[in-house]
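Budget justification, computational time. The allocation requested in the original proposal was used primarily to generate structure tokens for proteins on the priority list. As evidence of use, we reproduce two of the resulting records. The first is shown immediately below.
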Amino acid sequence: MKSNRAMAVMAGGVLWMTALTANPSYAQSSATPRNWHLLNYAQDSVYGTGVEKAYAELLKGKKSSPILVAVIDSGIDTLHEDLKSVLWVNPKEIPGNGIDDDGNGYIDDVHGWNFLGGKDGRSVKEDSDEATREYYRIKSLYGNPDSALDKQSKEYSYWQKLQGKVSRPSGESKVTYKTMLKLQESLRKCETLITGYLHQNDFNAAKLDSIQTPDQDVMVAKKFLLRIFENTGEANLSYSELKSEFEEYLADLKKKAEQADNDAPVDKRADIIGDNVNDINDKYYGNNDVMGQFGFHGTHVSGIIAAVRNNDIGIDGINNNVRIMMVKAVPDGDERDKDVALAIRYAVDNGARVVNMSFGKGFSPHKEWVDAAVKYAEEKGVLLVHAAGNDGSNNDEVDNFPNPDFADHSARANNYITVGASGSGKNGKVASFSNYGKKNVDIFAPGVQIYSTVPGGNKYGNASGTSMAAPVVAGVAALVLSYHPNLTAQQLKYILMKSATPLPDGTTEVTKPGSPDVKIPFAELSISGGLVNAYEALKLADSMDAHKDVKEKKKKKAKLEPVKKG
């Protein structure tokens, strides 16, 4: 998720700005394997999913079926060495002929579709957050909503929530921005001292740790920067990477701080896409560019699920017989309900069995559109996997959209899994940023320092967030389906939930996310009370005998070829 490192830098930096003379020690835990999320505690001492153990002990010699997973996200590097061979190819579309060969309304949708695209090939990169959009929509309708709206009405209550999200944070941003400018100045001074001492422009924590000098200025700078690195939780991070992310965060903070109270966000969508954002039936818009210029998030998510296994390149994904369909609908900012609803329908109509949704927001003005799409996926037997969010909040108390609870109060969707983020045990047990909820988060999965594919053709990197935890669950779901393709979405969810395991080292209490001084039983953070476990899920699926008592409406699925290695 964007800015996780920057926020860690902020916390660590502010601490050090008030206590530079403290005596911290940069104590890294023993190295965490890059593929820790695929490993298991008994053999590797990490809170992994047991994927590698499952391949070694349960799946040898067994035949699998290819599974299509849709990733609704920001885009994907279609040329990446570890992903290009696992991209879904629409069998009914002739690439590049400018004709809608399959008649689905989307021309040349070879690898998926871009609902953020325009007819001229451009794409929406940045969009405002939903709270801000709604805040200015209500203001434009009523002028002064505080006096125009009935104080007892639902709309006034909604307006008050919007004010809390938009007005107060705007003021807070100004204060935070000023603080961050001071931190930036401290970073620059430390950078100058360290690069001058090392006679090199970049460095990492290990290089810093090796510095020993009587120059007290250099030693203070060393301690300052080591604490910054420590707070990121990423052992292999370079200073240049950290600095880049912090500057991006600072630029975003400046934009928020400078936004006047009466300045509505600029609507770039109208210029680029040109659809009627308030008409769900105006659905044939966008373009076929699922790559674009800002696909870090979607590329990283896709690699977790599907990076080619055992090809001696980069990383191994979870499933060795999977295809990725990219449906681009998530900008830098909050996704639109219309795009999400149509993206889900597109994925379902084109044969996806699992849909990963690593995004979310606190307001959903057209929830009924998304609800209808979720119900459609439910009817068609498609599992939806959604990230719980990164605010350290209780989803039982705060809104997080989309979700499986329908606005019309009909029965909750039973094809929907919401995922919180856990650590390796070495870098924390439960992610401090993860949302949780005994009623509204289903399961936890690895989501801290997950190493995966990133744009650039042959590049890889770490990222943290429930955005990384969701594709771990989506990947495990697809793995179970590969060997038990007749399972319904409901059966698949049951298997994942029933096979979830407690923390493997026997720990029962963890630090409550968002509350560093509070302990809570791990079992109280989610419905299942456990971590996703691929090994146990496959064992349970075997015991259920997928061919027995399976009652599902069969639907036509796109044919997929087995994944070729290399």
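The second record produced under the same allocation is shown here.
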Amino acid sequence: MRNGAKTGIITGVAVAMLAAGGYGAYSLVGGSDDKDAPAAKKARTVVAEPPSAEQAAAGTKDFLDAWAAGDLAKAASLTDDPAGATTALTAFRDQVKPSGLTLTPAGPATPAAFAAATGSPSAAAKPPATAPAAPTPGATDSPSASAPATAPAAPTGVLMGFKARAEFEGTNRVWDYSGFLGVVKMSDNTPAVHWAPSVLHPHLAPGETIAVQPLPPIAGNVVDRNNKPLTGASITPLIPTLQAKVAKLLADQNKDQSDNGTGVVITNAADQNSVPDRLFTIVDPKPPKPFKLTIDNTLQAAAEKAMTDLGGKKGSIVAIEPSTGQVLAFANAPVTGLNRAFQGQLAPGSTLKILTSTALLEAGVNPDTPVACPTLSSNPKKIPNSFPDAYPNNTLQQDFMISCNTAFIDQGLTSLKPGALTTTAKDVYGIGLNWQTGLPSFDAVVPDAGTNKDEQAMQSIGQGKVQMNPLAIASITATVQSGSFKQPILVAELPQQKAPRDLGPDVAGKLRQMMAATATGGTAKDVMAGISDNAGAKTGSAEATGIATTNSWFTAYRGNLAIAAEVEGGGHGVEAAGPAVASLIKAAGNR
């Protein structure tokens, strides 16, 4: 599993550290406190002194010979963890199922060779010291451990290499790979292989499994929804991860296994975002079929340009088809690093007033209900608006159009029960339902503020502990447009989470009315000029720690298209994120 570089063969074993900082021995045989009991066999312990070159070579050969011969009990007894080695060697025999195994000592190995085999930086693997490094107290690299241990920076003992060749029934293919192990010296002056999962294969880490598994066909050419070769600087680097996750998500749905091959694979069942590591193909899967995404190349190109046009600012944008939840485009600035469109964790500012409005409308407040817009909010820590004037005669819709913070805070504190925003976010908009889009994504968070009025106030205007990204905000807007939540997906066949309930037609209609009014006569009117037909929008700006200028947010829909964007330090919603969203709407034409 290639989740991170391994920097050593060994994880810790439970040892006692000497008071002077030396490396203490640990026991392989239990003793007894009963003075009348028969004399117990003296414990065999690892000592600080490394084995000689001859001992390391002999220990390696004896262990490999026993393993290759299938004498797993003997092989395990030649390690410093017989129980753990027995479990792992037996699992390798039963799950990898080689029909023949040849293991040949390759002599002393270098840290650079070990680093190359494990994928870790060569600088991280240090030459073996005269005494092994102290392990993490209480840690273990036994495969039976309930939690993976952390690998130390350098192999323990004398680093040795070997060549492995595995044969399999029904094929003339052979699997050759280079292996590594560390040899330590025991208190009876004999060598022992220090046991670690990576003895089986250098890619194998604690908590992972190596086994022969079905290999579904690796997808062929990647195409967009119109069967054209996929383009886009933000998405193409993510294709391998996307393909692996989609194959994993669809594995249970693909009942027909006739296209599958078989191979040796490392997996980690505990990490849902991990990508299986294919080590060796025994039988090839059938020729691949095109890997078709929901992406629209035209919109993807427009999204990439919108991010390039930010002039070096960080930002991201997502476009969704409301009727299906299919992601039509996404892009990031910069294109490398975090996929902030899906994994960002940012306060969304006033774009979250769509959610607050939903809760208020469901509580009986209407767009034409008088809701005053004072200069300061009524909660203990007073919050102002982004404008100086008060509007005492406003309605809820007018407050939405001008994005009045104080109106939404005060009406929320009056009309909404504690936890209402959290419940509405989950039940109507699917927030927190563990979306499986095809790529790793951050599930947006609207935590329950309880009875804390200041936190309630902040949440109602998209600040405080609320965390979103353009994927989540675009999905909220898409739900308003269509009336029901459709979990965003990048491949049409992926399963979609269902929200507990739809957005009622009455509330959905009122929300669309409020967003349409904002697009034609509110804070979004300049950006949405000329594209207001069957459209709605909401602006937002969000304060963030360490950023002097607010983050710019904007979301809009037109027809069967919903878009959201954020620009770090972009100012008001119409200043940076708004033009990016508008450019995509124009590129889409009439959908």
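A brief technical remark on that second record: Confidence is low (pLDDT under 50) at residues 1-27, 29-35, 121-154.
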